[in-house]
Each structure stands twice: as C-alpha cells, then as structure tokens.
Specification:
Distance between the termini: 58 Å
CATH architecture of the largest domain: Beta Barrel
Length: 213
C-alpha cells in the first residue's frame, strides 16, 4: 500500500514537471511589444501576434504594467528571436515560448519579477520556483505591498467600479505608501491604511492599480 502511494506521488511529480508540448519552431523579428506578455513578430514578412505562454504580466493600466512592458522591450524589441509555438489561446493568438540567444524570455520575465507564473494554464515547477524567488527578493512588481494578479485585476468591473471615484464622492486627498511608492486616493481601501505612509500630492509615486491614485 505504501509502495503504491509512493508511485502515485512520483508519477504526480513527473507530471507536474512535464514541459509544454512544442508544435512548431519559428524565427522572427520582434516589431512590437504590446505589454509584458504580448509581442508581434515579423515572420516571413508577415506579422504574428504572440502571447507568451505560462506567464501573465500586469495590465498596462495597473501598477507595474508599463515597467513590465519596458522590461520585455529591453530584452527583445528589434531583435530576431526563436519562437517555440505551443498552440493558440481562446482569442486566436499564438501561444509560445520565445528565446533570444540562450535566454528563455518567458522565464526571464518571471525571474525579474515582471510577470506572474500563470498557474491556471501552466504547472511547470521551474516557473513556480522563479516566481517564489522573485517574490521573496521583492523584485519588480513584488516591491508593491499588495500586488494584484492580472487575472484578478481583469475580473474587476470597469464601470462603475471601485476605481470610479465619481460614484463614491470626490477625492479629498492622496496617500503615499512609502514601502512600495504607490499612491492611493481617499476613495481607496488603502488610503491611510499602510504600515509606512504619508499624505502626498496627486503627482507623487505610482498610481494604485485599484483606485488609479
């Protein structure tokens, strides 16, 4: 019985570590970076939009969204990369892992703290480990005291929502989280509710991903 249980655990571990199936290898030049997990390649003179498999970067309108985009751009924009295609997502975008020289860029984004490991669609142990290390070291987006996963951010209603201040009264002040550098306005749940903070102007710090500062 114990031996059977042991085999089940071993099999589960092997399954968990199984790399994604690669369906095709392509080469192309990165001509556009939409955000921290989406690029456009020029392959055989035709544009191909690629969603980086296994990761999920902050949306451009949430905290660290622009910095995540900048980090990806610095690594691949204008460069000729190799795409390991893994399939397509529900929007019809090509999914894949991009490599520049010897670097796995998807993994680099997680390692630098510029993207989350997208555990809903990927169970690779290496990405989970890279995220844990980045989180513990407070790299990139993990410097935020209350980082919001992109998939959670996308679930938030847009109009009206928690970040729509006109539905909850006027903004009467701003609060700067001194630990993360994030600015919250008076309608935010984090206003005057951080371990280290002070009143600030509307232009200080980075806007909160929830209230938009």
């Amino acid at each position: 019985m114990r031996f059977t249980a042991f085999l089940i655990l071993v099999f589960a571990g092997l399954t968990f570590a199984t790399p994604p199936k690669i369906t095709e290898h392509l080469t192309g030049k990165v001509v556009s970076v939409a955000d921290g997990d989406t690029v456009t390649l020029l392959v055989n003179q035709k544009p191909l939009k690629v969603r980086l498999y296994g990761i999920d970067a902050p949306e451009t309108n949430q905290s660290f969204g622009n910095k995540s985009k900048q980090a990806l751009s610095a690594m691949v924009f204008g460069k000729t990369i190799t795409l390991k295609k893994t399939g397509k997502d529900k929007y019809g975008r090509t999914l894949g892992i991009i490599h520049y020289l010897d670097s796995d860029i998807n993994a680099k984004m997680v390692e630098g703290g510029w993207a989350w490991h997208y555990k809903y669609y990927n169970d690779e142990e290496r990405l989970a480990s890279l995220e844990t290390k980045a989180r513990n070291s407070k790299l990139g987006l993990w410097a935020d005291s209350q980082p919001i996963a992109p998939w959670e951010f996308r679930r938030q209603p847009r109009t009206p929502n928690a970040s729509s201040k006109s539905s909850e009264g006027p903004v009467t002040g701003y609060w700067l989280n001194l630990s993360s550098g994030v600015r919250h306005n008076s309608q935010c749940k984090n206003y005057k509710n951080t371990k280290r903070g002070r009143p600030c102007s509307a232009n200080e710090g980075r806007p909160c991903g929830i209230c938009k500062g």
